[in-house]
Amino acid sequence: MGRVFFGPRRLMYAGPLAPTDPHAHPTFQVLLSLDAPVRLRDARQQEVECQAAVVPPDAEHAIVEGTLAAVLLHVPAEDLVGRRLATLGIGVDAASWGAAGERLRACGIGRLPVRWAEAEAQTQVLLRELQADAGVAKPTHPAVKKLLRLLPEALDEDVRLATLAPRVGLSVGRLSHLFSAQVGFPLRPYILWLRLHRAAEHLQQGASLTEAAHAAGFTDSAHLNHAFRRTFGLKPSEIAGVVEWVRPPSR
């Protein structure tokens, strides 16, 4: 059984990796196999076999051959660490993902985390290794910062660009361009990611798929299934019952 370490600004999976459908997500995906190498395929059907990899945001990929033990960490592209990783210039081809992960092979992680503190410690090791060659993160425009702050609480409201732009003091065209340029992908996939995050919160608390879908703003469970598969390469029903949710400790 795998474990999902899920909390504010944290999403890590530790356990066996199975093959997936092609998918893409608005995060950097850091992968480290502690067993056999993993085979990844990019949108051009090129493949790479690697022990570790870093897949950039919005890059379509699929796991072709999995492994029995791996750590898979999602790093938000809009965070400071994500903006530093963007300076590494990782391409959308599978070969560059494997090359970017090379330095992780000797990072010293030898076992899967079980408790939250272990997952946090491994996260810091992985991010420290990756940032060793990274440049200085570009500053984020104040309007984009404001939008990133308000969006998680605005999902139940009208989140169209035409409605959001006046709230941050920009035109629709300017906000659309600025968000894509600074975050690395358009606003729509980011809003979808936030909705999936909210759905996961409800699933973690024991909600049914339909309840989680409605709470996160999806039309129904089929809509959530489709979005989840496009983002993670699997349906939520395919992982239900085979993962253990690990929550951050109460403060």
Question: Keywords for this structure?
Answer:
single chain, alpha+beta, Jelly Rolls, 2 domains, 6-stranded mixed beta sheet, 3-stranded antiparallel beta sheet, 10 helices
How big a fraction of the residues is strand? 15-25%
Distance between the termini: 27 Å
Structural Rg: 18 Å
Structural class comes to alpha+beta
SSE order, one letter for each helix or strand:
EEEEEEEEHHHHHHHHHHE
Helix content: 25-40%
Count every beta strand, where a strand is a DSSP E run of 2 or more residues: 9
Q: What CATH architecture of the largest domain do you see?
A: Sandwich
Largest sheet: 6 strands, mixed
Mean pLDDT: 93
> What overall geometry do the principal axes of the alpha carbons give?
globular
Oligomer state of the chains in this structure? single chain
CATH topology of the largest domain: Jelly Rolls
Q: Which spans have pLDDT < 50 for at least 5 consecutive residues?
A: none
CATH homologous superfamily annotation of the largest domain: Jelly Rolls
Kindly report the spatial arrangement of strands forming the biggest sheet.
6-3-8-2-1-9
Give the count of structural domains.
2
State the name of the first-level CATH class of the largest domain: Mainly Beta
Domain HTH araC/xylS-type: 145-242
GO molecular function, one term: sequence-specific DNA binding
Organism: Myxococcus xanthus
InterPro entries: AraC_XylS_family_regulators (IPR050204), Homeodomain-like_sf (IPR009057), HTH_AraC (IPR018060), HTH_AraC-typ_CS (IPR018062)
